[in-house]
UniProtKB/TrEMBL annotation, chain A:
GO terms for cellular component: plasma membrane. Keywords: Cell membrane, Membrane, Peptide transport, Protein transport, Transmembrane, Transmembrane helix, Transport. The chain crosses the membrane at residues 21-43, 88-114, 121-140, 146-164, 195-224, 244-267. It comes from Mesorhizobium waimense. It is found in: Cell membrane. It comes from the Bacteria. PANTHER family: D,D-DIPEPTIDE TRANSPORT SYSTEM PERMEASE PROTEIN DDPC-RELATED (PTHR43386:SF1), OLIGOPEPTIDE TRANSPORT SYSTEM PERMEASE PROTEIN APPC (PTHR43386). It is a multi-pass membrane protein. InterPro entries: BP-dependent_transpt_permease, MetI-like, MetI-like_sf, OppC_N. The lineage of its organism: Bacteria, Pseudomonadati, Pseudomonadota, Alphaproteobacteria, Hyphomicrobiales. This is ABC transporter permease. One of its GO terms (biological process) is transmembrane transport. Residues 82-271 form the ABC transmembrane type-1 domain.
TrEMBL record, chain C:
This is ABC transporter integral membrane subunit. Residues 97-299 form the ABC transmembrane type-1 domain. One of its GO terms (cellular component) is plasma membrane. GO terms for biological process: transmembrane transport. It is a multi-pass membrane protein. Belongs to the binding-protein-dependent transport system permease family. PANTHER family: DIPEPTIDE TRANSPORT SYSTEM PERMEASE PROTEIN DPPB-RELATED (PTHR43163). Keywords: Cell membrane, Membrane, Transmembrane, Transmembrane helix, Transport.
Automatic annotation (TrEMBL), chain D:
Its main location: membrane. This is Oligopeptide ABC transporter. One of its GO terms (cellular component) is plasma membrane. Signal peptide: none annotated. It comes from the Bacteria. GO terms for molecular function: ATP binding; ATP hydrolysis activity. It is a peripheral membrane protein.
Length: 282, 478, 312, 558
């Protein structure tokens, strides 16, 4: 043992890292947001314009990320794709988050029969093969983002609900919850104004890693051929479609793939940063 | 000698020939079961199979087939009784998917152990070709009765070049050389394994890494790369596959012939060939596949002219045409075609909304007429054009392949061509049909494309005929 | 031993869960547009042929009656017949269950084998270079689409280095394991990062905890402090995380199965959904559900074994 | 004086801040003789724990470091000793007992294994011999059935047993010095007495030297030979205990001794008592209250009777103290009165109305009563600023007009002596005492007739404790409040309350006027409680055998 003590708390680097991680994550995410909002200005080409004379070209001055089999500019598609993928990550998380935290709050707070029914529902959804649900919903409603969001919302809420419920079970016995009851506050006020803000920290952190999962689920759905409608540029679809050229034209998959990974990285960093900030663990 | 391993997209679903309509199944039946009459390597001629010879009565109603001395894989003799059993079963079994084309058979009889006599209700020109269809495989009556339908569908007793030793569902079908095959001398391989490798990339990598001898369904995009690999041979075998754009004739402006013609002119088929098939396809000018029986090579090919198309649409009062384009999810080719056509049609002022749905649902939507356009393809199962013609132009239950195309003259001609027994007259009739279909634009013919397979250099004679049959009995593994 | 009493009565709670799942799957698959008979008949479908097939599989009966048959079959330990494969669904599942099971098992073991040392290294070097590198790599690791990652692994290990099979599933156990290396690795690369992150956080906490300080104050060397005190205390939350992830994994092996041509249940399920093979979808969903429920049950038992405080 | 065993000279510990250094221990010099018990007292944050940890070089953070001075253990320098050598010193030479046994014992390892672990490592014994040695140690620290308790887990023990196990672990490697950092702060007085006695026993038996950290002057007075007083990182005074207590040299030591809450001598004047009009309605009237909690799972149903047959009446304007050991049902009673916990049987009337009779009564109850909670941090919503919290209460209660709310918030803070600057502070940025006052302000915001204060000073420093008690006294006098004051510190109750109720295992065992109960306890349990309080006068021994016997017989359950 070289160090006298192997239990260092957050040291100087630690405090910097805590803030630094969050800042770097937000910075990266901000970059993507700028790309998405400014796509019409930033993207050098029309993302869906085909050019038969420039098919499958490697990265060059003209097309810095190369072109795909239709001669579409990958860079422009990646930039426009930021719009869709950010939307996927955000909407795909927001609804599960809202539904989950609300249900989890109510179940955890009321306990008893409400909670028992709720927990069975959670068990059912947890045990239900996600893919069956996802594919069925997409089949029922037709492929596309709306179906994807609905499927995500139907399944995704469970994680949030479980997190929040567990927190609520603890928090509702906390003195400040009891204090709120003793002060004559209404249940709704106690649940949503006093307890939820304290219970939600874990969920907010989880939402960040969930955003990554949602992105990857979207990519998996694209791999099975049920992603967004062509010719829309979306990274998952681009990677999935580019699979055909993975050995001959690597740039078609590499750049959208890297974009997914980088966006995932940004979300993870924000999640880490928030976890440190809130003092919660995943 | 040796065992040939073949990678394909999906595994078989059954070995009961009458219970499936999937190519994935049919293509293996040909290795396991023999048929009375075979289609040759070019896919244009019939040749003797289990039937050594056959005679057709002048009225075209009675077929007399003479069987050769053949044995089933269990060593028992193949007799006329087995043939009668197999053919009547197609027509009469409750679960048969193929009853319709065999309903024309009135009686099937074993006149002696080596002779089968079939009486038809009406003269049918394509009947011999139908007998060459893998679903008309000859099963062992005794084997079927002892094993029962379920077991038989798993480890059938056939009289083909190979016999199934094991079927690992979802993974592979393992075939061994059938020592009792009547042409056993012709077979060099000890066995064959049909292995399911769903991912195109993985399948190709398997062959490249030498872990599979051959792989079928080579994507167009991979051909050039595989051709560069000195260990591999890429086979581009002529096929009867023809891709087309279905048009729903009942939807608004699409009912007008001029609109459909305009769409044909707005589509640059050559660009589809270049982009989607990487140049390995060929622009189609008829619904009959190139090189197939009665193909009319001089049929009209409408030139690509978006300006003119735009004009025609305007003249027909359809200048702001918007089309609902149904796309089958998970099919790379179909999706790519859609993306390309969308852009091409846009040049002629047509707005195309792509609607991607999963395959079964696409089918439903097409049947329900819930679409404007959509790409589909057809590969012939039998060499006679009647089967496809009936489906596409014959006004049968399928509403002319879901297009709702309606032309009484065409309908009558299709029926007449089926019963016409004189080949020369039939050829003329089919030529006329091809012209009429083109004129009416029943659908838009897009392109013909080959079957593309890849094999290691040490594999010889790996060949697929235009109907999809693999001649594994000729394959040599060095 | 009374802490393990829940083992006896917990299975009772599975019944409503499985019942709920049977109802949902049943309704869901029948809501999907598309007709199994038509899929089966393909291009040559005629209305009569379709009607015949539908009658043969009882698809023309009222929904409630169909559900009743389904339940009755289930009570008899049957799950109906596959329309596509024309055999008993249970038999079909039996032929396909092993690769999926093995994949999940191997991925789980591999993930743990990767996650524990990685987390240990990171936690013991908390804040230093090794920790930062692991954090960044693992954060990146989560973002790779598995189908892409799998392909890259094949190209590297099977084509370029030619040391592992490209795809498929072998005959003997050793062959099977060799075939499972890359698929499990594909799954593990993301699963283990999730585990490692959680484990690392718990370990960092543990190293700082009073328990660790107390052990150090008794003069225990750092290795004993870590392996005997910090690690066991960090495992409890990770076991639950693992269970939840395995639940997801069980229902989501299809992509990896497809890339690596593993003849498992995931592929079966997707093909069944696409061809509207209702009985198979129901059957596979039930099996998956049972497996998930079982995994959580096991996780509960492990949790109780790991942490004497837990009562269920 | 004998030669020092441990000698600390000019020990300085600094904290590396982002900018520079902050000195946490400032040139502390101290010796410890063999067999000596040294008491280390001082305000919270003065560096007592840090000093202890420095001795074994287990500083709580990598940003803390020993920047100067030396520590010698029988002549051996420890500040520069290699880490390997320190492994032998820790546990082997210097054993440590921590304040909070619950968090320092490994919850997933058997108690015995935690003890034998050290034995195996330091004495290189095999598993079997180590086990035998551990069982022996368990017996030494007073476990009745050590062989069985060896296999127990910490959660199966009571707090006192855990603390004894902790001591066992510290003793396992035969150290010469034992450092006990607030070993009894979290415990009951009765158990505290027991632990202290155990420590002294061991000291005599083994000839150990002990450094005992505490903030309770009573404890040092009772058990130590010498006392060292720390403040703000410095050692302000050190000396033989009698001399130091009798004639403290430093001003801080004097204030420390002054704020120590002692039981007043018997001849202290009785409190003035407001006479109640004979027919007055009791404000709270509890009759035969029974509260039972279900425990266990589906098949192992059990129940705990938290409150048994409690009958209690509180008249308007009265100040009633409720005392009793931990778990005796004090909080449960308080919650039941406020309708916060379901009642199994019995009735509770508030101002004449049965609180179970409907929502209306409950609503009235909640507009006229308020509770102050034990744990100052947990009782405040961490997300709300003090101002928002008070404003919300005022708004919901609706007793004053919205426009006046901000002004009223300010007044309330003034009242509890916090000042308006705290309006924008969140609990996280406030000290325990400040949080507790915010909690009291919140209770006052209700403008209640009745305040129930549940152990609201237990977690605080003696000096702050004194301030809060003073605040209550003032409030009661100025606002004619009725106060139910729950505590287990009898001295405070004696100071503040007119009447006292003693609870034991869910029942009221004694009730009466404070002076009477404290000077002439009728029930043995009350007597034991009083006897267990360590007196600041070293000549009033806590550990007198006769009284201990009662305390053990009654108060301590193993
Ligand atoms: N990890 C740490 N990082 C920075 N400062 C610390 C750390 N631990 C303690 N300190 C500081 O060191 C000083 C002494 O703390 P210490 O814990 O020794 O106090 P104490 O006298 O034991 O108080 P208490 O009676 O509350 O236990 C305090 O000012 C505290 O803020
Ligand atoms: N919600 C509950 N469920 C089960 N048992 C409970 C519950 N709340 C309290 N108890 C039990 O009731 C008894 C009385 O608890 P209570 O909190 O009233 O004690 P207390 O006198 O306030 O103790 P302390 O001094 O530690 O605050 C204890 O044995 C406790 O374990
Ligand atoms: Mg301290
Ligand atoms: Mg209490």
């Amino acid at each position: 043992m070289s160090e006298p003590l192997a239990a260092p708390a957050l040291g100087r680097s630690g405090r910097f890292r805590r803030r630094g991680t969050l800042a770097a994550g937000v910075f990266l995410l901000g970059g993507f947001v700028v790309l998405a909002l400014g796509a019409p200005l930033i993207a050098p080409y029309d993302p869906i314009a085909q050019d038969a004379t420039a098919r499958l070209q490697g990265p060059s001055w003209l097309h810095s990320f190369g072109t795909d089999n239709f001669g579409r500019d990958i860079l422009s598609r990646v930039i426009w794709g930021a719009r869709i993928d950010l939307q996927i990550a955000i909407i795909g998380v927001i609804f599960p988050f809202l539904i989950g935290t609300t249900l989890g709050t109510v179940a955890g707070f009321f306990g008893g029969i409400v909670d028992a029914i709720f927990m069975r529902l959670v068990d059912i959804i947890l045990a239900f093969p996600f893919l069956v649900l996802m594919l069925s919903i997409i089949a029922i409603l037709g492929p596309g983002l709306a179906s994807f969001y609905i499927a995500m919302a139907l399944v995704g809420w469970v994680s949030y609900a479980r997190l929040v419920r567990a927190q609520m079970l603890v928090l509702k016995n906390h003195d400040y919850a009891v204090a709120a009851v003793s002060l004559g506050f209404s249940r709704t006020r106690i649940m949503f104004r006093h307890l939820l803000p304290n219970a939600a920290a874990g969920s907010v952190v989880f939402a960040m890693s969930d955003a990554v999962l949602v992105l990857l689920n979207g990519a998996a759905i694209s791999y099975l051929g049920l992603g967004v409608q062509p010719p829309v540029a979306e990274w998952g679809v681009m990677v999935a479609e580019g699979q055909a050229f993975v050995t001959t034209a690597w740039w078609i998959t590499l750049f959208p793939g890297l974009s997914i990974v980088t966006l995932a990285f940004a979300f993870s960093m924000i999640g880490d940063g928030l976890a440190d900030l809130f003092g919660v663990h995943e | 000698a040796g065992v040939l391993t073949i990678g394909r997209r999906e595994d078989s679903t059954t070995f009961d020939p009458i219970k499936t309509a999937q190519n994935i199944d049919l293509w293996v039946f040909a290795n396991v079961y023999d048929v009375l009459i075979r289609v040759d390597k070019t896919g244009t001629k019939l040749e003797p199979g289990l039937a050594e010879s056959w005679e057709v009565s002048p009225d075209g109603l009675t077929y007399t087939l003479k069987l050769r001395d053949a044995k089933f894989s269990d060593g028992s003799d193949l007799t006329a009784g087995d043939v009668v059993f197999s053919l009547t079963r197609i027509r009469d079994d409750k679960g048969s998917l193929w009853a319709d084309p065999f309903k024309v058979m009135d009686t099937v009889e074993a006149t002696d152990p080596k002779t089968v006599t079939i009486k038809l209700k009406q003269a049918t020109a394509p009947f011999l070709a139908t007998l060459a269809f893998p679903i008309a495989s000859v099963l062992s009556k005794k084997g079927f009765e002892t094993l029962g339908p379920e077991k038989y569908a798993e480890t059938p007793i056939g009289s083909g070049a190979f016999t199934i030793t094991e079927w690992r569902r979802g993974d592979r079908v393992i075939l061994a050389k059938n020592p009792h095959f009547w042409e056993a001398d012709r077979v060099s391989l000890d066995g064959v394994e049909w292995i399911s490798v769903p991912d195109d990339n993985t399948r190709m990598l398997n062959v490249q890494a030498g872990q599979l001898d051959t792989a079928i369904f080579v994507p167009f995009s991979r051909v050039a790369e595989l051709q560069k690999d000195s260990n591999l041979t890429v086979h581009l075998d002529p096929s009867t596959r023809e891709d087309h754009l279905l048009i729903n004739h009942e939807h608004g402006a699409l009912a007008k012939k001029e609109v459909r013609q305009a769409l044909d002119m707005a589509i640059d088929e050559q660009a589809v060939v270049d982009t989607v098939t990487f140049g390995y396809g060929e622009v189609a000018n008829s619904y009959v596949p190139k090189g197939a029986l009665y193909y009319y090579a001089d049929n009209l090919k409408r030139p690509y002219d978006p300006e003119k198309a735009k004009q025609m649409l305007a003249d027909a009062g359809a200048s702001d045409l918007t089309l609902n384009y149904v796309v089958r999810a998970g099919d790379e080719i179909v999706e790519q075609t859609a993306v390309l056509l969308q852009q091409q049609l846009a040049k002629a002022g047509v707005t195309v909304n792509i609607q991607k749905v999963d395959p079964s649902q696409e089918w439903d939507m097409l049947v329900a007429g819930d679409y404007d356009v959509g790409v589909n393809y057809w590969t012939n199962d039998i060499l006679d054009p009647d089967q496809k013609t009936t489906f596409v132009l014959g006004h049968d239950a399928n509403m002319n392949y879901m297009t709702r195309y309606n032309n009484e003259k065409v309908k009558e001609l299709v029926a007449a061509a089926r019963t016409e027994m004189d080949p020369a007259k039939r050829e003329q009739m089919y030529t006329d049909l091809q012209k009429m279909a083109k004129e009416d634009v029943n659908w838009i013919d897009l392109y013909y494309s080959p079957f593309i397979n890849v094999s290691r250099k040490n594999i010889e004679n790996f060949y697929q005929n235009p109907l999809g049959r693999f001649f594994l009995e000729d394959v040599v593994k060095n | 031993m009374h802490r393990y009493k829940f083992v006896l009565y917990r299975p009772l709670q599975f019944l409503p869960v499985l019942f709920g799942i049977s109802v949902i799957t049943f309704i869901l698959v029948r809501l999907i547009p598309g007709d199994p008979a038509r899929v089966l008949l393909g291009t040559r479908a005629t209305p009569e042929a379709i009607a015949r097939i539908r009658a043969q599989y009882g698809l023309d009966e009222p929904l409630l009656a169909q559900y009743f048959y389904f339940l009755r079959n289930l009570a008899d330990g049957e799950m109906g017949r596959s329309i596509l494969y024309k055999i008993d669904v249970l038999k079909l599942i039996a032929t396909r269950i092993e690769p999926t099971l093995m994949l999940v098992l191997c991925s789980m073991v591999l993930s743990v084998l990767i996650a524990v040392p990685v987390a240990a290294i990171a936690a013991r070097n908390h804040g230093r270079l090794a920790d930062q590198v692991i954090r960044i790599v693992s954060t990146f690791g989560i973002g790779f689409p598995p189908f892409w990652l799998g392909l890259m692994l094949i190209i590297l290990f099977s084509v370029e280095l030619a040391i592992l099979p490209v795809s498929g599933y072998g005959n003997t156990l050793s062959e099977k394991l060799a075939h499972l290396v890359l698929p499990s690795l594909t799954v593990s690369l993301s699963l283990s990062t999730v585990l490692a992150r959680s484990l690392r956080a718990a370990m960092v906490e543990g190293l700082r905890s009073d328990v660790a300080t107390a052990a150090r104050a008794r003069g225990m060397p750092e290795s004993i402090v870590f392996w005997r005190h910090v690690l066991p205390n960090s495992l409890v939350p990770t076991v639950n995380l693992l269970a939840v992830n395995i639940g997801w994994l069980i229902g989501g092996t299809v992509v990896v199965e497809t890339v690596f041509a593993l003849p498992g249940m995931g592929q079966l399920l997707v093909r069944a959904i696409f061809s509207r093979d209702y009985m198979v979808v129901q059957g596979v969903a039930m099996v998956f559900a049972c497996a998930t429920v079982l995994i959580n049950f096991l996780a509960d038992i492990v949790t109780v074994a790991l942490d004497p405080r837990v009562k269920l | 004086m004998i030669a020092a065993l441990l000698k600390i000279t000019d020990l300085t510990v600094v904290h590396d801040d982002d900018g520079g250094e902050r000195t946490l221990l400032d040139a502390v010099s101290l010796d410890l003789a063999p067999g000596e018990v040294l008491g280390l007292v001082g305000e919270s944050g003065s560096g007592k724990s840090l000093l202890c940890r420095s001795l074994v070089r287990l500083l709580p953070s990598s940003r803390l470091r020993i920047s100067g001075g030396s520590i010698t253990l029988s002549g051996r320098e420890l500040t520069t000793a290699p880490e390997a050598e320190m492994l032998a010193v820790r546990g082997g030479e210097i054993g440590m007992i921590f304040q909070n046994p619950s968090s320092h014992l490994d919850p997933v390892m058997r108690i015995g294994d935690q003890i034998s672990e050290g034995i195996r490592f330091h004495q290189r014994l095999n598993a079997k011999a180590a086990r035998a040695a551990a069982v022996d140690i368990l017996a030494q620290v007073g476990f009745q059935d050590p062989a069985r308790h060896y296999d127990s887990y910490p959660h199966e023990f009571s707090g006192g047993m855990r603390q004894r196990a902790m001591i066992g672990a510290a003793l396992s490697s035969n150290p010469r010095i034992l450092i006990a950092d607030e070993p009894t702060t979290a415990l009951d007085v009765t158990i505290q007495a027991q632990i202290l006695r155990l420590l002294m026993d061991i000291r005599t038996r083994r000839g150990l030297s002990v450094i005992l950290v505490t903030h309770d002057l009573g404890i040092v007075a009772q058990v130590c030979d010498r006392i060292a007083v720390m403040r703000q990182g410095r050692l302000v005074e050190v000396g033989e205990k009698r001399g130091l207590l009798a004639a403290p040299a430093h001003a801080y030591t004097r204030s420390l001794i002054a704020s120590h809450p002692s039981l007043p001598e018997e001849d202290m004047p009785a409190k003035t008592e407001k006479r109640q009009a004979p027919g007055a309605v009791p404000l709270v009237d509890i009759v035969k209250l029974h509260v039972r909690f279900a425990t266990g799972g589906l098949f192992r149903r059990g129940a705990v009777d938290a409150i048994k047959e409690v009958t209690l009446r509180v008249m308007p304007g009265e100040t009633v103290g409720i005392v009793g050991e931990s778990g005796s049902g004090k909080s449960t009673l308080a919650r039941a009165v406020l309708g916060l916990t379901p009642v199994s049987s019995g009735t509770i009337r508030f101002d004449g109305a049965d609180i179970a009779s409907g929502r209306a009564v409950l609503a009235t109850l909640r507009r006229q009563t308020a509770m102050v909670f034990q744990d100052p941090y947990n009782a405040l919503n961490p997300h709300l600023t003090v101002g928002k919290m008070l404003a919300e209460v005022l708004r919901v209660q609706g007793k004053i007009e919205t426009a006046q709310i901000p002004a009223r918030c300010g007044e309330l803070l003034d009242l509890v002596g916090l000042g308006r600057a705290f309006l924008d502070r969140k609990p996280r940025s406030m000290s325990g005492g400040q949080c507790q006052r915010a909690g009291i302000a919140r209770a006052l915001a209700v403008d209640p007739k009745l305040i129930i204060a549940d152990e609201c000073v237990a977690a605080l420093d003696v000096t702050i404790q004194a301030q809060i008690v003073e605040l209550f006294r003032e409030l009661v006098e100025r606002m004619s409040l009725t106060l139910i004051f729950i505590a287990h510190d009898l001295a405070i109750v004696r100071n503040l309350c007119q009447r006292v109720v003693v609870m034991h295992r869910g029942a009221i065992v004694e009730e009466g006027r404070s002076e009477e109960v404290f000077s002439r306890p009728k029930h043995a349990y009350t007597a034991a409680l009083i006897a267990a309080i360590p007196h600041i006068d070293p000549d009033k021994p806590l550990l007198a055998p006769s009284k201990m016997a009662t305390a053990q017989a009654d108060g301590v359950a193993n």
